Amino acid sequence: MNSSPARYSRSIDWPTVLIYLLMVGLGWLNVYAASYSPDAPASPLSSLSFQELMAYDWFKQILWVATAVVLIVILLVVDYKAYDTFAFVLYGGMILLLVITPFIARPIGGSRSWLELGPMRLQPAELAKFVTALAASRYMASINLRQQNFRDQLVLAGITLLPPLLILAANETGQALVFAAFLLAYFREGMSPLILVILAAGGVILILALLVPKLWLVGAFTLVLGLLFAFNSKLWRHHLPLSMSIWVVVIGMVFGVDFFFNNVLQAHQRKRIEVLINPSADPLGVGWNVTQSKIAIGSGGFAGKGFLQGTQTKFDFVPAQSTDFIFCTIGEEWGWLGTTLVVVLFMALLVRIVYVAERQKSVFGRTYGYCVASIIFFHFCVNIGMTIGLAPVVGIPLPFFSYGGSSLWSFTTLLFILLALDAYRKQDLERY
């Protein structure tokens, strides 16, 4: 356990805590607005029993917030050295939980990713994020990423890729995609930028293959490669085999995207991509959520319709409005001012996390800090992107705002482990 409570409390990064409290408080207000019904009792706390109150998302969110406060106290009281000491033990337990979840979980929304524990449900995929961040940071603290051998690269890739593969087995594509964010943390610790460039280029090629006629795309790439050879004679002498290999790979990707799209992706995943490319493709089906979300956000105007005055919210036009689409509630009731405040809060939190990460005394603490920033950044971008039609709907919550105990506990744990490490950074000697 940590000693000197007064000194420890002074070492906690209180600006980050304040931002967290603001976000959680605003999140609860909007969960209340999203689940509000004009027909509900004026004072439900005094007129309804506990069992009846449990039917309301806003009341259950109060319980999640209360338990999150208890969780924060535990995370800050536990000896900070335990987080890297037991990182691999936690990772092993989490892998075991992910393995058994599809076999014992009841199908919910087409996936088997929720464990039912009495009246509450737990999603192991949410917990896998901070556990994987701990394990990856612990491993990276034991190697030099700039000088690591192929074996080290394979081990790190295995630590990072195993959880999303198991999550995919439970049919949770969105949660699996989040693990791509770890690449940003690895880049900070010395991973070659070429890897990011290759992955980004591959993503662009796949997207273009869906939008542009394939022969045009192949012709344009061949023309660019030919011009490079024409104006740089060294390519002929030194890089011809590599260049031709890249050309073959790109051609294979362009013509292989149809097979992947039609035979690997599930029907609802194909529909979401089609709607992203062409919003009018299925306006009353898969495109309904995004269309109604954009209507809600746009109708808010500059200052919004006012708290509890959102018509899209009241009449349930947007499904999952208290969870994945909470941002459209903010846009409708608080307008441009409210959505801008949310974006500013996230930017402030991310800047603060990066600042905290950079002042860590250990590689473990710094890497973990960047993992925290990368995960929150990914959720923030994708969630808001899908509510305004810039990203496919993949079921990713908005951190600290979306309704749900697993999400709130996961992001709270992710953040406050970093704050616990930071509070004792002066005592954290280089042990690796």
Automatic annotation (TrEMBL):
The keyword Transmembrane applies. The chain crosses the membrane at residues 17-38, 58-78, 85-105, 165-187, 194-212, 218-235, 242-261, 334-355, 367-394, 400-421. It comes from the Bacteria. Keywords: Cell membrane, Cell shape, Cell wall biogenesis/degradation, Glycosyltransferase, Membrane, Peptidoglycan synthesis, Transferase, Transmembrane, Transmembrane helix. Pfam families: FTSW_RODA_SPOVE (PF01098). It is found in: Membrane. PROSITE patterns: FTSW_RODA_SPOVE. InterPro entries: Cell_cycle_FtsW-rel_CS (IPR018365), FtsW/RodA (IPR001182), RodA/MrdB (IPR011923). It is a multi-pass membrane protein. PANTHER family: CELL CYCLE PROTEIN, PEPTIDOGLYCAN GLYCOSYLTRANSFERASE MRDB. This is Cell wall polymerase. It comes from Hymenobacter sublimis.
